[in-house]
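User: My notes are a mess, but here's the protein and zinc ion's SMILES. Can you give me a structure?
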Amino acid sequence: MTEALIVACPACNTLNRAPRDKLAAGGGKCGQCGSPLFAGHPVALSAQSFESHAAKSDIPLLVDFWAPWCGPCKAMAPQFEQAASQLEPKVRFAKVNTDEEQQLAGRFGIQGIPTMILFQRGREVARQSGLMNAAGIERWVELAGSQRRSGEQILNLEVSLDDAIKIAGKDPATEMEVVYYQGKRLSTPQDLANTQKAPGFRREDEKVIDVESTTERREWKRVNKRVTTARQLKDQVVAARAKFYEAKIPRGAGGKENIGIVEYGTNLAPGFDRARIESDLKHFLNYDAISKQYLDKLIVRFIDKTGVQDELVIPVPGGASP
Ligand SMILES: [Zn+2]
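Assistant: No problem, the inputs look usable. Here's the predicted complex:
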């Protein structure tokens, strides 16, 4: 089947009709100007060319709203470029300079940059603010593509439910909370609410991981009020760095520090004191190759009802790779 798709030319914005098979194989040139219809690079859009690419084209359009003075935007540019080379021609990648195209920025209510919006035939289907790396962008687009609504289609983009849940739970650029209960990931607030009502649910079995994304650092937080075995200590560090590992965001990516935070209650279990915890964790970080590659720093907080009482900051020794 060679269904024809309408594609706007990245060079002259002329609308072309191109067979899907040919596009998928990396071919297709503009009938007007001869430029390749997809070159694997984001195209800069103005208010005029935006309409051709967003509303008149059959190809989903991913726009990075950015500005030249924005540090995170600059950090994201090569990542966006890399994702374009991976995902085109399934998705057209484009950039809108919000200083020059204030009308577009206003029309879509851009509050902070960088902001990415995925459009399908002119309609916004997903939006994401904050710095993301190439792998994160690719997964986010694929996830958005999997959330089809009837009558609409994102081209050839599907992820399994498993992947979708993984993605939903692990995007460090988004503030969200992932809760595990007895090893099972509860991906929605409804999951959590149902589980908390289940017979035998014990609050202390909850393991909460918070994500905070700031411009300087990314944090995963794991809360476990009481530690009773050395194994638990190690497991918490593993959990605190697992999110960066799963999302393939090595230390230093995007100019941010990856910081794992674990929080313990001040009423430590017998056999555990601050010095023991510090030496055990230092020892673990010293030989754990994944921590060395994905974690810049581990912060251990000792908390009670009134807040953080004490804090250990443990830098992770040199990376396993440069
Ligand atoms: Zn052209």
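Confidence is low (pLDDT under 50) at residues 148-189, 200-212.
User: Great, I'll file this with my notes.
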